[in-house]
Structure prediction request, 95 residues.
Amino acid sequence: MNKLISMTEARKKFPQLAKDINAKKNSYTLMQKDQPYIVVMSYTEYLARCTREEIKEHFNKLWAEVGRKNAHFSEEEIELDVKQAIQERRQRRKK
Prediction:
């Protein structure tokens, strides 16, 4: 369901808005000067509205960004991080 809310009200209630959007799959049209300004929706809803090509393009951009952010890490550092994450996850399962 799409709800209307002013930009000012959205700013004040953003954490609550985000929870509502994610949990109840609502979307909000943020109004500025009594005119629709932007629509805020969950990432899942956004992907559902995208075409296959748009999703592929979006994924490729995200993947490239992750690569740029992690370019300074060596293969050994990445491998060590992955091993540590696996160990931590296994220990949490045992509890």
Remarks:
- The first helix runs from residue 7 to 12.
- Helices lie at 7-12, 14-24, 43-49, 52-70, 75-94.
